[in-house]
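Our example pasted here:


***
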Amino acid sequence: MAKFCEVCSINFIDDYSYHGHLMGKKHLKNVEYANHKKRQEENSIFVSPIPPRTDQKDITEFFTQFGPIYTCKFGYNYVIIEYENNEPVQHLLHEPVYFKKWKLNIKRRIVDFPQHGKRSPNKSSNNSSEDIQDDQSAERLKFKIELESEPTWEKQLEKFLTQVQDDDAIIQKRCNEICLNLNSVLRHTFPYGRAVNFGSTVTGLHSKQSDVDVFFDIGETIYDDDQVNNQGCENRTHRWTPKAIFKKVKMVLFKNKSIFSQVVPIPLAKIPIIKFHHIPTNTDCDVTFKNGLGVHNSQLIKYYISLDRRLKPLLLIIKHWARLLELSGTGKITNYSLVMATIFYLQQPNVNILPTVQELQTYSVPVYNSGWLVNFDKNIVPNASNNESAIPELLQGFFKFYGEFNFATNVMCPSDGLIVSKIDFIKNIQKLDINVDALNVSRPVCIQDPFELDHNIAEGWTQRLVQAFQQCCNTGVLNCECAAKDDYMSLLPLICDPVLKNKSKSSASIYIAIPAGKFSTFGLPDDFDTHTDIDNKEKFIETNWFKVVYKLVEKILTNIFKFDLQVMYDGISMKQIKIEENSDVHTKENYKVVFICKGKYCLNRSRKNKIPSLDPTLSCIEREILISDKLVAEMAERKEETSIKFTCSLEKKTNPLHVMMTLTDEQHTNKSFVEIGSYMRSKIPSIIERELLHMTQYEKQL
């Protein structure tokens, strides 16, 4: 009979799996969280709004008179008071309370408590999870500081590797003991069986938090459940089916409580597994029984890593980066798909570090598993690569490759290292009699498994996840470029930065489209159409428009909003572009410039009627500059300063031609950015249009 766990919100197919779940550490942790949540809600109040210009000390002293306070948390215009017991709460909720003649609005605190292993939509009120996150952040911060103390990139990398994973020999010893115990308890049922570990503990890409993945090969033929059910009873006894194997192993693990604890069967997963805790090694494990293709995939990755000493550090950095930004994990990007995506990037002709799977299989004796060719030649000597890029350069290349990759229309094929359009890919695999529906090419991302050719290992990637991944990759490119200036000494500390995750989530972005429209040819010579020395006039016009917008935006930010600008990224060398030259940059498809803006005045305020009479011959920008100068003088006199810092990127777009301006907050908690950014979004396109009209009317040039 089906069961439902209300604490964890999970359905179970029968009593057996339900009771197994109740013994699991995740369920027990959720029960602990739920009880803590109940205590917090019973003992806490939420007060909002609090009287303006009120000192926090006065508020704390006021509420102390009702009872001893356990914690007191202030936010913007609110306070959360948690008492040591619930008696003060009962009084405050049922009696009117006045603070300095201000009637306080007091409600019971609602704690939005996430279950263990699940992400809550709002973590702000969860003190327990905050404590856990604070501990993790403290560890990462300590790690970051330790990295910064190392004198060279090589020393930093060495420190990073020792911190993120245990020694391979220790892991191997642990895995061997787990497999020996499984073989020992299961040998009476499966005399030919053998436990084989796979996954990150085999490839060498394990972290300190990694579980041990084990495939148990029963050593006998496995029949389909339907096939056996249709046979006579006398033929069923010695025929193993997936369900029968799963049920038997589950029973054996439950019986051996001195070795295996917290046994949690998950029979309805795509690949049914049994989770358990191995007591002798204090290790969490997953055991599966399906075909063992994961074992061959792990051996392939392990072999690839052995070909180049740069691969293991590179992959560990990428895995750590993805985990910290919450891109990878349950229901997100799997580590296997992330690793294969990295391998695919390293197979590309312009990188040329790793051979394709087809190259490795060319001369090897065929070996099949579940109908798929899984062998490869471990003795092959790949063609020597002339790529001598350092690990940070390869990391930047990875970020750039996937930041620009068109996932919507292309398929990645690590078997042959090719990027194939989805239309052509479907035609090709139909000729090979591969199940197109099973491959699920229509998903936002398609990475074909190198062995199981009808399996899309990235089918779990959602469109939102792809956008977040590419956004983080584009930020990664900029971080690598900045780190290159100090010989990459700041790269690993940045990747291990405890606030990196918060930055990725909370960085607000404001988008401003600046269309070319009728000004697309502004600034071009009158005889432009007759020029014969320009091969691609359309590209030249696009470049010229980008240059015009760049100069106007720079003038607006510097002179009207009084920001100090620092160029962070100049992908097209703007200073070298000249209107009369047909340089190589005109053949590029995209142009992008990024700079950091710093300021101390919110000059979007009180601009109306600041200067009543102005010279009508002044341009729009000149008038706005006069207003800003007057505002700055007034604010400086009042010492009214506000720290503002954000990045501004300009990127050329076509169809129709326009420049996309993106403003991204760098301070993450500064409300002034939203205010001034919204003002800029409404004003900058208008200022540019009016400035160009004025310049056209008076025949002025930039």
User: Anything to note?
Assistant: The longest helix spans residues 671-697. The domain at 3-108 is CATH 3.30.70.330 (Alpha-Beta Plaits). The chain has 23 helices and 22 strands.
